[in-house]
Design a protein that fits this description.
5-stranded mixed beta sheet, alpha+beta, 11 strands, 397 residues
């Protein structure tokens, strides 16, 4: 058997095996590292704005001295909204529905929370744009509780401005979300009392949001009768936030847009594009390396078909003849994937230490080893099946 193994080993081409090993290491390293980087960085991409998961931005008009004299120029006409909606980079558009009644918020003295009384304003957008639990955002006519979403900047202004100067306690998002306060609505000669609580924080939309069905009901009951709804801001959803035509369009029409959020969406778009590119590149390299070694091995078997037939004729089963080729290719594949897994893990450990400064709880599940093992098993199984089938075909033909 040793003599047969030596004979079979002599048919293998070392340079071919080395080329296969190098290309497979590169391919597996790229795909393992790419998937792990995406998993590790995804909290940074999704954590910036959990309430509004779509590529959206708020658009308004530039306020000039002429528009201060004539407020109607600061509002969007329907033809302007239609023009925005038909742009190729716009996927959808929605308008803000403002409250047309008086709103007061207040608390009673309770524990460490100081009492306050203030005027407020409410606005609403379609619920489809808000990524929050329906149970937290639902409202009906018999409900005396109003869920609210406020800008994160409001909480920052309180903590780092007002609270510091007045010696008041600092409040976290979790703490302030537990505080229930009172809302008084008034208009049309009637008043209404409601309970309210903040259920979310937004860094994309700088307004106080309430459910749209509540807003429609409240405007009908407390709002000014027959008042025309002036649209001063619109919410746009982008189909492609990196479209080159976007910035010129908004500038030419003198529209304001929250550019920092737009740039953030561009970064996400480019990052995901890079992930897709490198994933595709890695898959291509792996496919090419696998195809090259399989075709090379098939050519070797074809050139040595007389040897294979002779071994089969003197009593060796085709599976026995295939075993050495299976072992050699399986061992090489196992070594190669192990090197790729170790290298990818080292790279991950290097960048994850720095990532902790950017993301709270940055340590995500390490998928490198599990994913590497899966790739190894798939390749070994495929090789073993192909080699047995090929040798069986040559030996029995």
């Amino acid at each position: 058997m040793k003599e047969i193994n030596k004979l079979q080993l002599s048919t293998l081409i070392p340079s071919q095996l080395i080329g296969y090993s190098i290309s497979l290491i590169i391919g597996i390293f790229i795909i393992l590292t790419t998937f792990q980087v995406y998993k590790d960085v995804s909290p940074l991409l999704s954590g910036e704005e959990k309430l509004f998961s779509k590529d959206i931005a708020v658009v308004s008009k530039h306020i000039t001295i002429f528009k201060t004299l004539d407020k109607s120029k600061a509002y969007f006409k329907q033809k302007e909204i239609n023009n925005i909606e038909k742009q190729p980079f716009i996927k959808d558009i929605a308008t803000f529905t403002p409250a047309t009644y008086k709103i007061n918020a207040y608390t009673n003295s309770s524990g460490n929370i100081p009492p306050f009384y203030t005027d407020l304003f409410f606005e609403s957008i379609p619920d489809s744009y808000i990524d929050i639990s329906p149970e937290q955002w639902k409202w009906n006519n018999n409900n005396k509780f109003i869920p609210i979403i406020i800008p994160k900047d409001y909480l920052n202004l309180y903590n780092f401005g007002f609270a510091e100067s007045q010696g008041l306690p600092l409040l976290s998002e979790n703490t302030i979300s537990e505080i229930e306060f009172n809302i008084r609505l008034s208009g049309n000669g009637t008043k209404g009392e409601f309970k309210s609580r903040i259920v979310g924080f937004s860094s994309k939309i700088n307004t106080i949001l309430v459910p749209l069905n509540f807003m429609k009901w409240a405007n009908n009951k407390y709002g000014k009768r027959n008042k025309k709804m002036n649209i001063s801001r619109v919410l746009v959803e982008f189909s492609n936030p990196s479209d080159d035509r976007m910035t010129p369009f908004f500038e030419d029409n003198s529209y304001n847009i929250n550019n920092d959020k737009l740039e953030y969406n561009k970064i996400i778009f480019l990052f995901k594009s890079a992930i897709y590119f490198f994933t595709g590149l890695a898959i291509l390299i792996i496919m090419l390396s696998v195809s090259a070694i399989v075709l090379g091995l098939f050519l070797i078997l074809q050139r040595n078909q007389e040897m294979i037939k002779n071994l089969y004729n003197i009593g060796y089963h085709y599976k026995q003849i295939a075993r050495l080729y299976q072992i050699v290719l399986s061992v090489i594949t196992l070594i190669v994937t192990t090197v790729a897994i170790v290298t990818s893990t080292i790279v991950r450990n290097t960048y994850s230490n720095r990532l902790e400064y950017l993301i709270t709880n940055a340590k995500q599940t390490n998928t490198i080893i599990v994913f590497g093992i899966i790739i190894t098993l798939i390749l070994i199984v495929v090789y073993n099946i192909l080699i047995v089938k090929r040798i069986k075909k040559i030996a029995t033909q």
